[in-house]
Amino acid sequence: MSDVFEKYPPGQWRAAAGEPVLAFPVISIEEGGGNRIVERERAYRDGSKLDDTGSKAKRWMLHAKFENTIDEPSLSAVNGSTPLYPDVLNALIDSFDRFHEQPGDLSVPTRGWVRARLEAYKRIEDPGEQDCADLQMTFVEDNEDSVDARAFTAPTANASARRLSGETTFDQQSDGIWGDDSVSLEEFAADLESWANAPGDAAQEVDRTSARVVGAANRILFAFSRPGGDGRDTLNDPEGSNTARKLHATKEIASSSGGSPDRGQPQVVSVVFERPQSLVTIAALLGRSFEDLLAANPQLDDPLYIPARTPVRVRREAA
């Protein structure tokens, strides 16, 4: 029988920067994930077109044992002489309560360090077993502070229109008002983003495609906001109000992108990081010039040490 699992390091958790790392022995791990798939059915076509709207958040279910007879160097190297039961166990649960509004650092023995939030835990103590407890924990991956240059690209109004149309498509499917106009709305919004990122002589196509987005949204609103039967008043119901709001937001964003010389792009965006950084590392992460970042951030006391959660101004790249 393989002993690979037994050679993995213990589980570890740090609730926040400056908080101690707590190590605990893990006896079983479950991992769950997947993809967010949206099915799009078209009239007179067999099957469905599948749209991948991203990955689902990963979940890790850890089963840990807290018993003072467990003697592993890897545990004592982190916890020192602090007993697993009840001290490390109580400190771990206390950290869940005190820092529940932010993600922490979790070391999954089979995966390494990830950013995650606790979703649920269950503490089990049996009177027949003295001085020990089981703890079952479910953590959910948190990508809020993922450092990815694409995540910090200033969104255009047209990219926002495409995102909103995709969300509206999902809501319409849930509300039962899916149709060809819904497909057109998402396709027009995708075209709008493509034309908006083209050279300046494509301005007429931006205006034309913006009008198509508005037109498709108007047709959906008109078709499903009329009083009467046959589901034609779906958007007047409380369940359809979210779809209606997003349709109106899509119209507004698409309208504002038409004829806009800078196509809705902000000149400067602010980004924050969960860990201390320097302008040098930020420049490397985002693919920007250190000199440009320095010029855009005269408010920083020390460009070589930027505390966590400090806003850093980043100029957008030219369209």
Task: Give a written overview of the molecule.
The protein has 3 domains: 5-141, Elongation Factor Tu (Ef-tu), domain 3, CATH 2.40.30.200; 150-257; 268-315, Membrane-bound Lytic Murein Transglycosylase D, Chain A (Roll), CATH 3.10.350. Helix content is 35%, strand content 23%. The chain has helices spanning 73-79, 84-98, 157-175, 180-196, 203-223, 241-257, 279-286, 290-296; strands at 11-14, 22-24, 26-32, 35-40, 49-55, 59-67, 104-108, 112-124, 132-141, 268-271, 312-315. A 7-stranded antiparallel β-sheet has the order 2-1-7-8-9-6-3. It has a two-stranded antiparallel ribbon with strand order 4-5. A two-stranded antiparallel ribbon has the order 10-11. It is extended. Residues 146-164, 174-178, 195-203 and 259-266 have low confidence and may be disordered.
The averaged pLDDT comes out at 74
Instruction: Work out the count of structural domains.
Output: 3
Question: In CATH, what is the class of the largest domain?
Answer: Mainly Beta
> What is Rg?
26 Å
Principal-axis shape equals extended
Order of helices and strands: EEEEEEHHEEEHHHHEHHE
What labels would you give this structure?
319 residues, alpha+beta, Elongation Factor Tu (Ef-tu), domain 3, Membrane-bound Lytic Murein Transglycosylase D, Chain A, 8 helices
Report a brief summary of the structure.
The protein is α+β, with helices and mostly antiparallel strands.
Fold topology:
Elements: E1 11-14, E2 22-24, E3 26-32, E4 35-40, E5 49-55, E6 59-67, H1 73-79, H2 84-98, E7 104-108, E8 112-124, E9 132-141, H3 157-175, H4 180-196, H5 203-223, H6 241-257, E10 268-271, H7 279-286, H8 290-296, E11 312-315
Helix pairs in contact: 3-4, 3-6, 4-5, 5-6
